[in-house]
Design brief:
The structure is a homotrimer. Chain A is an alpha/beta fold. Chain A contains twelve helices and nine strands. At the A-B interface, strand 2 and helix 4 of A face helix 3 and helix 12 of B. Chains A, B, C: InterPro entries: Asp/Orn_carbamoyltranf_P-bd (IPR006132), Asp/Orn_carbamoylTrfase (IPR006130), Asp/Orn_carbamoylTrfase_sf (IPR036901), Asp_carbamoyltransf (IPR002082), Asp_carbamoyltransf_Asp/Orn-bd (IPR006131).
Chain lengths: ~325, ~325, ~325
Amino acid sequence: MTRSAQLDTHRRLRHLISLENLPAAEMLRLLDRAESLRQEWFANRRKLDLLHGRTVVNLFFEPSTRTRTSFDLAAKRLGADVINFDIASSSTSKGESLVDTLHTLEAMHCDAFVVRHKENGTAEFLARHVRSAAAVINAGDGNNAHPTQGLLDAYTIRRHRPDFSALTVLICGDILHSRVARSDIHALRTLGVGTLRVCAPANLLPAQTELPGCEIVEDFDTALGGADVVIMLRLQKERMQHAQVPSEQAYYARYGLDARRLRLARPDCLVMHPGPINREVEIASAVADGAQSCILEQVGNGVFVRMAVLAELLGT
Amino acid sequence: MTRSAQLDTHRRLRHLISLENLPAAEMLRLLDRAESLRQEWFANRRKLDLLHGRTVVNLFFEPSTRTRTSFDLAAKRLGADVINFDIASSSTSKGESLVDTLHTLEAMHCDAFVVRHKENGTAEFLARHVRSAAAVINAGDGNNAHPTQGLLDAYTIRRHRPDFSALTVLICGDILHSRVARSDIHALRTLGVGTLRVCAPANLLPAQTELPGCEIVEDFDTALGGADVVIMLRLQKERMQHAQVPSEQAYYARYGLDARRLRLARPDCLVMHPGPINREVEIASAVADGAQSCILEQVGNGVFVRMAVLAELLGT
Amino acid sequence: MTRSAQLDTHRRLRHLISLENLPAAEMLRLLDRAESLRQEWFANRRKLDLLHGRTVVNLFFEPSTRTRTSFDLAAKRLGADVINFDIASSSTSKGESLVDTLHTLEAMHCDAFVVRHKENGTAEFLARHVRSAAAVINAGDGNNAHPTQGLLDAYTIRRHRPDFSALTVLICGDILHSRVARSDIHALRTLGVGTLRVCAPANLLPAQTELPGCEIVEDFDTALGGADVVIMLRLQKERMQHAQVPSEQAYYARYGLDARRLRLARPDCLVMHPGPINREVEIASAVADGAQSCILEQVGNGVFVRMAVLAELLGT
C-alpha cells in the first residue's frame, strides 16, 4: 500500500495494512503506546474505557487461534465490543461480495475491521473501499504482511535490547511463504537494526529484491554467528506445494534450532517464533521452552501492541 | 399469531412474532423509540445501560450475517449480554427438542430469544411455550414473517416521506418466497400507505388472499409508474425449486431494476432492498449504489429498530 | 487428582478438577457462596463487578449447550470477559498441542480455563501444566468427573432437604458412562447423605470399587423404595458401543421413571436429571415436567454454582 493510502491527510495512521513505508515515527508511537498500555494493565488489571461504545469486527477468513484471540482480548480490554464474524456460517455463503459485507458492517457503525485472508492484498483492498471513518487492520494476508506481528516482534526485542543499531537479527526458515518475515524485515529495517540476516533453503527463499537490506546466508550454522536475536519461522506446511521440503527430519537436521546450534549465536541471544511452533521440525523443545526463549513473551506483548494499534487508529 | 397471543393482558407488546394484526399504535411506538435511540446514539456514541444484566440469546437455525449481527449490536449497545447459540455445535445435535432448549435457557434467566428458522411458525411456537417473562422475537421464519425488517423498512421510508397516505410503494421480485414482502405489506398497510403494489412473475406470486390490499401488476415497467418507493426483493435462489426461474439473465431482463427502469418511477423514488443483494440479478449495481438507494441506510436503521424492539419488549 | 494438586499450599482451592477428595469444608464454602450470589442476583438482576478485567476461556472439545452457556453466563454476570474457543476452527487444526494452546492463552493473561473433553483426565492434565495463577475448571472429562454438576446437584438437594444425613438418594441409569454419577456420589458422600443407592442394568454398572459407599440395587422398582431424591441419568447413546442396550423401549420398560414408579418412592421425592433428557427413554414427560421435578431448577442453580466456583477460584 502506498504511504499516502495508509496515512490520512494529516499524515496520521488511518489503517494498518503493511509496515512497508510506515515511517519510523509512527512505529515508535505505536511501540510507546503499547508500553504505556502494558504498564497500565499490570498496575490495575482493569479494563479501560477508551473504546467504550466502539465495535471491532474480526473478519477471519483463515483459521487462527492466537491472532484472533489476541485482537479479541485487546479490543475488550479497551472497552470495545467485538463481533466475531464467522465466515463459514455467514451470508458470504449466499454469495455476497466482500465489499458488500464491509459496507453492511460499516452501515451498522462498526469502527474497526481486523482482516485475515489467504489472498495477498485483501486488507488493502478493503481499506480502499471503506466509506466511513472505520479502520482496517491487516491480521495477515497470504504471504504478504502481518504488521501487528512485525510490531510485536520489534517491541519484544526493544524491551530486551533497546539499542537496535548494535544488533544482529537473524530470521530463519520458510521465508518464502512468510508474511511474518516480511513484516519483521520492514519493522526492523525502519527501526535501524544494525544487521538483518536471513537464512533459508534456496527453494524457500524469495528473490533478493524482496529482502531489502538483508544479508542472505544459506548455511544455518554460519548464519547464527554473532546473532543477538534469532527469529525462527513456522514451516508453513499448509501453504507449501508437495516436496518443497524433502522431509521434516531432513529439514530439522539443516534448519532446526537446537541447543547445539543456539550456542553458535551470542551467549544471550534471544529466541523468537511467531507460533504456533512445530516442535522438532523448526525448533527443539529444549530451545523453545528454554531460558533464552521469548516465544510466550511475544504472545503476551501481542495483546498490548494490538491494544495500541486499536487505540491509535480509533483516535483515542 | 393472534393479536392476544402477541400482546399481554395489558395489551402491551409481549413478543414480536408478526406484524399481522399488530396495532398501528404499537408500530408507531416502536418507530418513535427507534428514532429517539438513534438520536441518542449519534449524540454520544456510547452504550446505554438500559439492558444491563439482561441476556439476549440469538437462536439462529439458518445462516445469517446482517440480521444476527444487527441484533447482536443492538443488544450490546443497550448494555445487554449476548449469547450466540451455535446450533450446529449445540446439544440439539444430541436430539434435545427446541422446547427443551428454550426452557433450559429460560431457567438460566435469559430474557429474550431472537429466533430465525427455515420453518414457518417456529418463533410463534416458541412464544407459546415460554414460561418466564422472556420475550421471543422473530428474526425470520420460512417465508412467513420478518417483522423487524418490516419495521425498519417502514422506519426508513418514514424518515424520507413522513406522509404515508400520499405514497405509492411498489414491492417487486420473488414475493412467493419472501417473508420480507409479507412483513412489509403488513407494516405499510397498517401505517396507511396510500397505494401498495406488488410485481412478480406469475409463478413467484402467492395467491391474492396473501396480498391483502395490494394491487398486482405483472409487468415491471408498468408497475413502476408513479412509485415513490420501490422495494426490490432478493431472488431467494436457496429456497427455490429448480427451474422456477429460467435463468438469471432472463429474470434480470424482465424484473431487474436498472437505471432505465428507475426513470419510469417518480423522480425522487427511493430504492430499497433487504440485502444481501444479487447484483445484476434483481438490481443493477448503478442503482444499488446510486443516489436514490437507501439500501445501506436500511442496514443502519435496522440496528436502531432492533434496539427499540428489545428495549420495549424487555420493559425498559 | 490428588488433594494437594487441587488445593494450593494454603489448602485453598486452586483448580476444580474432581470432587473426589475435596474436603467438605471446601464444598460447603462453594455452596454457601452460590446461595449468596443467588440472593444478590434476584435482589438486583445486575451484573457484578467481581471479575471485571478477568478473562474466562471456554475450551470445549465436545459439543455442549447447557454447560458452556451456563459457564458463559456465570462469567459474564460476574463482570468477566469470555473467550469461546472454537476448537474446530482453531490452530489446534494446525497441529498445535493442547499444552502449547494453554500456555499461549496464559501468556495473554487469561485467568480461568473451563475445559470439556472426551478423554478422561484432560482437565487435570492441563492443571498440571498451568504456569500462571490461572485456574482450570473441569466441565466434564470422559466418564470421569463433572464437578460443577455434582455441586449443583448437591446445592439443589440442599435447598429442599437441608439435612443430608436423613436422606436416601437414588441414582439410576447409565452409571458406567456417567461422569455426573461419579461427581454426584463424591459430593453426596462427602456431604454426609444417609443412604446413597445406585441402580442400573448390570452391563451399565461399573465395578463396586468405583461406587464407594453405595448400595447397589438392580431392580428399579425395589430401588425406589424410601427414596427422597432420585437422580435419573441420560442414556449416553453417543458413548455406548452397539447393543449395550437392546432397545430404548426395553430400557424404558425396566429403567424409565414414569408416574407409576415415582409413586414407589417417598411421596415428596425430588426428581432430578442433568439434562438434556431423552423423553420416554429414561424418563416420562409427565414426570420430567411434573410437580416433583427439579430439572429446570438444577439448570438455574448451575449458573449460581458456577459463579461461585469462578469467584472462589479467582480469589475474589
